[in-house]
Amino acid sequence: xxxxxxxxxxxxxxxxxxxxxxxxxxxxxxxxxxxxxxxxxxxxxxxxxxxxxxxxxxxxxxxxxxxxxxxxxxxxxxxxxxxxxxxxxxxxxxxxxxxxxxxxxxxxxxxxxxxxxxxxxxxxxxxxxxxxxxxxxxxxxxxxxxxxxxxxxxxxxxxxxxxxxxxxxxxxxxxxxxxxxxxxxxxxxxxxxxxxxxxxxxxxxxxxxxxxxxxxxxxxxxxxxxxxxxxxxxxxxxxxxxxxxxxxxxxxxxxxxxxxxxxxxxxxxxxxxxxxxxxxxxxxxxxxxxxxxxxxxxxxxxxxxxxxxxxxxxxxxxxxxxxxxxxxxxxxxxxxxxxxxxxxxxxxxxxxxxxxxxxxxxxxxxxxxxxxxxxxxxxxxxxxxxxxxxxxxxxxxxxxxxxxxxxxxxxxxxxxxxxxxx
Length: 422
Fold this sequence. Notes:
This protein is 60% helix and 9% strand. The chain contains 12 helices and 7 strands. α1 runs antiparallel to α6 (121-136). Residues 1-12, 14-18 and 267-287 have low confidence and may be disordered.
């Protein structure tokens, strides 16, 4: 873009610009106004200068041609200097000097026929320049420059027609009105741009707060799920089996619980939303890269009191890799499903099957835990029993999957874990 090298900051027109940082809408508007003002100016000024020569009588064409050529050269040079952003105040002074010279030499570039109608190419040029100043310079400086141009243009009319210069008064006055209107319009749109930036900033802050609140709620749910899956589950196991459990078994389970609770305090892996060791996954599951799903599932099955028939290939890599949050959710939900069998099913065995679709883009995972125990009615589970809802259903939903629990009294229970959500 031609304005890329312009060093003047986009909001330099506004008072106090150095103390504030403009927003994207304000920057875009000011940059557009800057480009538009300079481009339309060079087109209008060069066109007016070119048309001035053939409008003059034959004997006046040479002088008009020299002045017109100078105007065109300066217009192009001014355009390049302005977009480069170097020494804007010096460029403004030089511009006023060049345009003042054009105004004061109207007698050499404007035929008498044009002055009869009160409009000349010089007035058109001065008008577009004065209006353009309002879009490219601070307000006070822009209005002062427009006033100076109007005065010099009037002085040129007096020099050209000492006895009839009053024809220029209405147009010169209107030139100043145009500058005021343009300045007001610029300020109005600038205020709207700043309001849009402020609204965008408020919306971004609201989104940030919402995300923080969501993360806090998610962390709280994960913390409660971890407590449920560790200490609470172990205490229930001890209370259910009593002295039939050997101290070594309890000691081993308590050690695993402590390790999981300690891991839950580890920071979440950088850049992996939802990946936390608190769900029961190994430290590898908290890495940034994909996680070997088979390794995670096998690690969850090992060391259980329950006899688990793992009806899938336990070779590392057989089920492929999944994102860390998915591995966390699948392993945590699998562990809770098996603990429910241990505590409530009344049987000592369960079957776990795992499949991974290889002919789909998503590589969908299906994990099924089946027991032949007493079963239950899911609709009649008390509200305070949060194992199924939090440790299985909510955990899978947070990872973009789902859990389907099918059970009837006397017919066993099937827990189906799917990712992604079908």
